[in-house]
Design brief:
By secondary structure, the protein is mainly α. The protein has one domain. Helices cover about 75% and strands about 0% of the residues. The chain contains eleven helices and no strands. The longest helix has 27 residues. The chain is globular, with a radius of gyration of 22 Å. The C terminus is likely disordered. It comes from Penicillium subrubescens. Keywords: Membrane, Transmembrane, Transmembrane helix. This is DUF1774-domain-containing protein. InterPro entries: DUF1774_fun.
Amino acid sequence: MATYNPFARRETHNAHALNLYRVFVPLTWAVVVIVGIYYSLHSPDDTKGGKKLWKQGNKHNTPFSQNTTVTGIYWILLLLSQLSYVWHLFSKETALVAAAANVATHFILNNLFVFAWILLWTRNHFWGSEIILIAHFINQAITYWRHQGLPAFVHLSAVAGPYAWTLTAIFWNGAVAVNSHNLPGRIVANIFIWVILLVGVFDIVVRQDYILGYCLSFLTLSLALRQVAIKIIALQWIFAFVIFAVFLVTSLYISSTKYYGRDSLFRSVAHPESTDRERQPLLNEEA
């Protein structure tokens, strides 16, 4: 008996799998929303010294800290966009349902990872939350490269949006875990910030993915604004603004080429004529 691989990409999904996805996708999404709202307003009661979700970020000033207002807006927009992804699972169009179902298992894992991260982060378990983010990043990276050609709203809400978050959050959480607020820590951060640029630009350019680019632009802008507030005489905020600009300009360029139907060098993309059109002169001659 063949085993069922929930991570496999399929053109169609059986009714049992779809029913499971239609239950667990909105359920885990709701868990993230409820837990996120709760810990944004309350500190953990079972841990001494625990902090609210965003207050924890403001408490630790690191070279990778983000502006909690901007990042909070990012998360609100991301969670709202994920409602569109949930809707795709209930669509009457088979292609949309299949596309959404193909990443459903990854999306459920994404929500479980975010849920676990919030619980650990607010309770000062920074190394545990870092491990969760690393696992989360691996899951999103696999999803990103394995599932291409998804509808825009599926790609944004289930793939690119969470992927961009994990890429930046790993450094933020890691900096808190190692207490990276002193001079040696800032020097190391001045180097590691370029990893975000390298990974991001590689993904954006190779995949021609302006959606990921805009997500990373949003989060690196948040990073830059927070770094200015933390330490004005420093390189980190300058680097962050440069990376933000690179992501934004690259994304604008790629989206414009797609809009005007051109390639990466802005040359017109030639579309092959249909077989019937190619055979038409021959048919006319035969006639």
